[in-house]
Design brief:
The protein is mostly beta strands and 208 residues long. It contains two helices and 15 strands. The longest helix has 18 residues, at 2-19.
């Protein structure tokens, strides 16, 4: 299902590029910056699920700074690399404390940007590779999280303050699962769905 959603959105983005090619060419006298950088504060809210009978894993929401860089291939089509790291408390609801784990989830999205005066909405889709590190096992003797590949959907808007600076609101949904091994016992591996919603607000800078 995730692959189907990803493929459909990517097809839609390239279709928009084709449909708007003539319009983009007629406006090629309008300058744009090939590079942008944004600094955001993000809320990362997981939507956890698992395959444990009779138990539910809970993963905390966290607030962290995030940095991203965007490169524009043309006025409308761009690629964005998102960099941040988050720490999440993990527990079984009404049960064991599973400590915490750090996530490093670099995400690369392909975006299509629209223009409406000082507003620039955009849609995006891409891939995510999450590295789990610094895990604390809580009530267990040990716990291990497998690094995992996921997909990302994105929507956002930039608002120009001037020729260089702009404000940004961004929402991403990352589709992510990991296999969790408690106490070095691979026979008891648990598949945990994380699927975080990431909401960010920040400021950006355009440069060539």
């Amino acid at each position: 299902m995730k692959k189907l959603i990803f493929a459909l959105l990517m097809t839609g983005l390239f279709s928009l590029t084709h449909v708007n090619a003539q319009d983009a060419n007629t406006n090629n006298d309008e300058t744009y910056s090939k590079w942008q950088a944004r600094f955001r504060v993000i809320a990362v809210a997981p939507s956890p699920d698992d395959d444990i009978d009779g138990a539910n894993i809970d993963i905390s929401t966290t607030f962290v700074p995030e940095l991203d860089f965007t490169y524009f291939f043309n006025k409308n089509l761009a690629a964005e690399l998102i960099l941040a790291t988050t720490k999440h408390e993990v527990e079984i609801e009404n049960g064991a404390d599973l400590g915490y784990v750090w996530l490093l989830p670099p995400t690369l999205n392909l975006q299509y940007h629209f223009y409406a005066d000082d507003f620039k909405p955009y849609l995006g889709a891409g891939i995510n590779y999450t590295i789990f590190y610094g895990a604390d096992a809580g009530d267990l003797d040990d716990i291990d999280y497998d690094n995992a590949l996921g997909f990302s959907l994105q929507a956002g808007v930039d608002y120009n303050l001037n020729d260089k600076w702009f404000l940004n609101l961004d929402v991403k949904k990352i589709f992510l699962k990991t296999d969790v091994t408690p106490d070095n016992d691979s026979a008891n591996d648990v598949e945990v769905t994380i699927d975080p919603l990431v909401i960010g607000l920040g400021v950006g800078l355009k440069f060539n």
